[in-house]
Write a structure and sequence with these properties.
41% of the residues lie in helices and 17% in strands. With 358 residues, the protein is of the alpha/beta class. It has one domain: Alpha/Beta hydrolase fold, catalytic domain (Rossmann fold), CATH 3.40.50.1820.
Length: 358
């Protein structure tokens, strides 16, 4: 075999490996659900509150993006944890070891220890913590009267994406048997997460089904990443309107798909088309009632939309709620942002309509 032929075979093999194994086939486009209640659209009128949030996000991103690019991860993580600085909460925060996973119980007054929420924070798998997301976890405990377990899963790049996943699974098994007062009966259980945490939440839901564990009574995912092949149109189309994600993701958008797949392999140390990092690409049948919220201005809009449409087509009860002109994870800016309060009211209404699994 001549050298040119050998080189050609090698190139074709690498190309085929990326195209059909790493990236896989593009997700199918599923039709809009027949149920009119499956989709809800909210119009966000401009206001001073929204302008203030955008300014705050831009200032935060100036610190985070610079730190991430210089690989000063602790600077980025400290900046993100500052989201909770200066805020007062009605909830108490109690450190706990959740089966080997660091975590904290978030307990609003009157929280029932037998009704629990597992909350998985966002932050691109590289930052975020229970501290950065206390506005969200405290609000969850308030509106549900549940004890919220906010986990501090291992982060990349020090650890692999698989470690993030494993910590969520470990914490879930632990939560089934333990509450804030120690081992105790479980009456109701919800799982929620935002962005990267929404990704881990939806991946966890499929794993729970496959492992035949006690499922959550409902799931809430805020602007989840569902497709690590990054095939959604909004990834590119909304780059100009996504104040929070664009500064970090616009460089990724410049990469051709072939290079992007290898970037995911190098960064996540996992196959992009695997349903573990890309729950959109997995089996979405037999899942609990799921509410997904997203902004129509953000790059992950199609990740949210396609997940809900596919889940509905697979027979799983799912709802999509979208807001115009909101920043990614605007729910964390409550009560300053009226649309955040509106989103929390929708979450409360959705969860109140779910019956415990018996």
């Amino acid at each position: 075999m001549t050298l040119p032929v050998l080189l050609l075979i090698t190139v074709l093999t690498i190309w085929a490996f990326e195209r059909f194994y790493l990236r896989g086939n593009p997700p199918a486009e599923y039709p809009t659900p027949d149920d009119p209640g499956a989709i809800k659209h909210f119009i966000s009128p401009p206001g001073a509150e929204q302008d203030a949030v955008i300014k705050a996000v831009e200032e935060l991103n100036d610190t985070i993006v610079g730190a991430v690019r210089q690989r000063h991860m602790q600077v980025a993580r400290t900046a993100m944890n500052g989201l909770s600085a200066g805020r007062s909460y009605v909830s108490s925060f109690v450190p706990v070891d959740a089966g080997g996973v660091p975590a904290e119980w978030v307990l609003a007054p009157g929280a029932d220890p037998n009704r629990r929420v597992l909350y998985i924070h966002g932050g691109g798998f590289i930052m975020g913590s229970p501290l950065s997301h206390r506005t969200i976890t405290s609000k969850f405990s308030e509106i549900t009267a549940c004890a919220v377990l906010a986990i501090d899963y291992r982060l990349m790049p020090e650890y692999k994406h698989a470690d993030c996943v494993e910590d969520c699974r470990t914490a879930y098994r632990w939560l089934l048997e333990n509450g804030p007062d120690g081992p105790g009966a479980l009456q109701q259980l919800f799982i929620s997460g935002d962005s990267a945490g929404g990704n881990l939440t939806l991946s966890l839901a499929a794993w729970i089904r496959d492992e035949a564990l006690r499922p959550a009574d409902a799931i809430v995912a805020m602007s989840p990443l569902t497709d690590c092949t990054f095939s959604g149109h909004s990834i590119r189309q909304n780059e100009a309107t996504d104040t929070m994600l664009a500064p970090l993701m616009k460089t990724l958008n410049k990469l051709p798909p072939f290079v992007k797949s290898w970037w995911v392999v190098r960064t996540y140390r996992i196959r992009p088309s695997s349903p573990v990092p890309s729950p959109l690409l997995g089996d979405l049948s037999g899942l609990p009632p799921t509410l997904v919220q997203a902004s129509e201005a953000e790059m992950l809009l199609d990740d949210a939309r396609r997940y809900v449409f596919k889940a509905c087509a697979a027979g799983s009860p799912a709802q999509l709620q979208t807001w115009t002109d909101m920043v990614h994870i605007w729910q964390i800016f409550e009560p300053e942002l009226p649309q955040a309060t509106e989103a929390w009211n929708e979450i409360k209404q959705f969860l109140q309509g779910q019956n415990p699994v018996h």
